[in-house]
Design a protein that fits this description.
The complex is a heterodimer.
Chain A lengths: L1 H5 L1 H50 L5 H13 L6 E6 L5 E4 L9 E6 L11 E9 L2 E8 L1 H51 L15 H52 L2 H32 L7 E3 L1 H18 L3 E6 L6 E3 L1 H17 L6 E8 L3 E8 L6 H4 L21 H11 L3 E6 L4 E8 L1
Parallel strand pairs in A: 7-9
Antiparallel strand pairs in A: 1-2, 1-5, 3-4, 4-5, 6-8, 9-10, 10-12, 11-12
Helix pairs in contact in A: 2-4, 5-6, 6-10, 7-8, 8-10
Chain B lengths: L1 E5 L3 H13 L3 E5 L2 H10 L4 E5 L7 H10 L6 E5 L4 H9 L4 E4 L4 H11 L4 H5 L2 E4 L2 E4 L4 E4 L2 E3 L3 H12 L7 H8 L10 H13 L8 E4 L3 E4 L2
Parallel strand pairs in B: 1-2, 1-3, 3-4, 4-5
Antiparallel strand pairs in B: 6-7, 7-8, 8-9, 10-11
Helix pairs in contact in B: 2-3
The chains are: A alpha+beta, B alpha/beta.
């Protein structure tokens, strides 16, 4: 619900609704003003007409008839929505339905109290004038016009309420629909992020801005996947085109050494075979790094127990280290939480770190591989007390085929740490090389 | 054994065929995936050796087709690409093993031998025996000529795998995959170290060696 209220379509609907409401209020106020003015004019005309009828019908000396006329007019308005009063100049009442009128003459608007009526009767519009020596007052209550204005205001308020409800309903509807379409896009992009490059956004027939954007995203994804597919194809082709001749070469050498049987030739051919194996290993590692960096492997991630990975590493390498008169200690915290990952690649990550230490340190070196549960991450550390790596070289060791000056003579492809970095990045982890004073300390952090 | 090699590179196919014939097997070679699918469904083979990149029908589809037709013959894939996912894909499509080019023939032969169906009784045994060497799979114990030998868990697994393949060649990469579950090539002598430790326990104190090293190909346990 929270996300719905924050969605763009809902906000737009609310803004539009609020604008409509404000316009309605302004229009309503103007209309009420116009209605009030019009009603006031009509009232004045009606009062003037009645005044004229009473005043003009009777001449001087017809006071009795005039009293009758005023009395009958007054009798026709028993609830005093109209008032009619005739009084002598000294204030003596001759006829009428109220007992008092204010002093003065002409047009005036007075509260009911000045006519001797209850305050609740509201205000009155009055015309007072001299007719044949007497004072005639004709007036009308504002109550009726007030009712009309209240009715108008009420209608506007109801219209406003209905608009509010409609806006909220429409906004929710549009937001729900918009959210469905946007989450469709988000879902697709997430699948693409996971390496599923064939995923596409479903585009509707509407051709609105979201559809337009979706089409553009789809077109970009088409190009992207074509490029990736092209790269994959190229690497497969390179692999095929280079490896087939390598294979034939290996076959030739093997056949020759089987046929020759003589020692010198066999020795040379053996060397050639191991050279081929080396070329092949480098080539495989390069392809493997490229594939890991492409990220397709992420689709196969499962919760992986790092302790069992370390147990196998210990199993395989503790004896190897001992054989080389080095020491390898593998330790991990009890109850390490599993990490989302690929067991095979994590095993290779650990193996490469350990082998790197085994190969580049002299006999007597102590190597440790540990996994610790830190506050916000699982930290894997491979440390040794060997010669270490100069600070200037540390960032370069991750480069493909880079080999430090000291290690140029030792065996290895120069790809072990590049592969490590590719695996680390695939897992969303970070890797740092530090001075172990003395030695090298490689720390990999898998954030939770 | 009767083998079918599906490979479009003529030199590789010839080489593989000659090797198998020399080892005493009967070999058919086909270059086209579609033809191979028809051939393999009609006839009985013990093991199929299938290249992944083939004209007509690629290797993965060929094996999927076979499995769909309920042909359960063991299949080993040959491939130029040692990609991270390629092996998994191959196994998921119904392949049983996977070998990356370039390969040594000895490696292929060892794997084909290991894949060939063995008598079911062998797999249900709880005691394995080679000459006077004996391991008990339930008690996880090992003895030779009546003398108890203490083995570490991984040494036991290593020995068990060698004994199950008695007389056959087991290569270094096969051991890495089956015993350590390592699907990459370690740059250090992991296998050699463990073999020499195992040998020190089961062979050194006794007169006749059982664990043999075959130069350039692997290891074999036999009397």
């Amino acid at each position: 619900m929270h996300s719905l209220l924050r969605s763009t379509p809902f906000r737009v609907a609310v803004i539009v609704g609020a604008t409509v409401l404000v316009s309605l209020v302004i229009a309503g106020l103007v209309a009420v003003q116009l209605i009030q003015t019009e009603l006031a004019q009509r009232m004045d005309r009606a009062i003037a007409d009645d005044f004229k009828v009473i005043a003009e019908a009777y001449g001087e000396g017809d006071t009795v008839d005039m009293i009758d006329s005023v009395t009958s007019h007054a009798a026709a308005a028993p609830n005093r929505d109209w008032i009619f009063v005739l009084m002598q100049p000294d204030g003596t009442m001759l006829a009428g339905n109220v007992t008092r009128v204010p002093a003065g003459g002409g047009w005036m608007t007075v509260p009911a109290a000045e006519l001797g009526l209850a305050e609740s009767a509201g205000r009155y519009r009055l015309r007072i004038g001299d007719v044949a020596g007497n004072r005639l007052a004709v007036g009308q209550s504002f109550a009726e016009s007030g009712d009309i204005v209240r009715l108008a205001l009420g209608s506007i308020a109801w219209a406003g309420a209905v608009i509010m409800v409609l806006v909220a309903a429409m906004g929710t509807l549009i937001a729900l629909r918009g959210r469905r379409r946007i989450s469709n896009i988000a879902e697709t992009m997430e699948r693409v992020g996971r390496g599923e490059l064939s995923a596409r956004i479903n585009v509707g027939p509407r051709a609105d801005d979201i559809d337009l954007l979706s089409r553009q995203v789809n077109a970009a994804l088409d190009r992207l996947s074509a490029l990736v597919e092209g790269m994959r194809q190229v690497s497969v082709n390179i692999a095929h085109d280079l490896k087939t001749p390598l294979n034939r070469l290996a076959i030739s050498i093997e056949t020759a050494s089987a046929a020759a049987g003589g020692e010198p030739l066999v020795g040379l051919l053996g060397q050639a075979t191991s050279e081929i194996a080396q070329i092949n290993a480098t080539f495989d590692a390069l392809l493997r790094i490229a594939q890991i960096e492409a990220g397709a492997r992420r689709g196969r991630f499962v919760p992986t127990d790092i302790a069992s990975v370390l147990a196998r590493i210990a199993d395989a390498y503790v004896d190897v280290a001992e054989e080389q008169r080095q020491t390898l200690v593998v330790q991990w915290d009890e109850g390490l939480p599993p990490i989302e990952g690929d067991a095979e690649l994590l095993t290779q990550l650990c193996a490469n770190l350990v082998e790197n230490a085994l190969r580049h340190t002299p006999p007597g070196t102590q190597i440790s591989l540990t996994a610790r549960n830190a506050d916000d991450a699982l930290v894997l550390v491979c440390a040794d007390n060997g010669p270490g790596i100069a600070e200037s070289e540390r960032s370069r060791v991750f480069e493909r085929l880079y080999r430090g000056d000291k290690s140029r003579s030792t065996p290895g492809s120069g790809l072990g740490l590049s592969l490590v970095k590719a695996i680390v990045e695939l897992h969303g982890a970070t890797i740092v090389l530090e001075d172990n004073a003395p030695g090298l300390r490689v720390a990999v952090r898998f954030p939770r | 054994m009767r083998l079918l090699v599906v490979e479009d590179d003529i030199r590789t196919a010839d080489y593989v065929r000659h090797g198998f014939i020399e080892a005493g097997h009967v070999v058919d070679v086909m270059a086209d995936g579609r033809d191979a699918l028809a051939h393999a469904t009609r006839q009985n083979f013990d093991v199929l050796i299938v290249d992944r990149m083939l004209p007509g029908l690629d290797g993965l589809s060929l094996v999927r087709g076979l499995r769909a037709a309920r042909v359960m013959v063991p299949v080993i894939f040959l491939t130029a690409v040692n990609g991270v996912d390629d092996r998994v894909e191959g196994l998921e499509s119904g392949g049983d093993d996977y070998l990356v080019k370039p390969f040594a023939f000895s490696e292929l032969l060892a794997r084909v031998n290991a894949l060939a169906r063995r008598p079911p009784a062998q797999t249900q045994k709880t005691v394995l025996q080679v000459a006077d060497l004996e391991i008990d799979l339930t008690r996880r114990s090992c003895s030779r000529a009546g003398v108890n030998i203490d083995l570490l868990p991984r040494e036991f697994t290593l020995l068990e795998y060698l004994m199950r393949n008695e007389g056959r060649v087991v290569t270094r990469t096969m051991l890495l995959e089956r015993v350590w579950d390592f699907h990459f090539d370690p740059q250090t002598s992991v296998v050699e170290t463990h073999i020499s430790r195992l040998r020190a326990k089961i062979d050194k104190p006794f007169e006749r060696p059982l664990l043999h090293t075959l130069r350039n190909s692997g290891y074999s346990l036999h009397a």
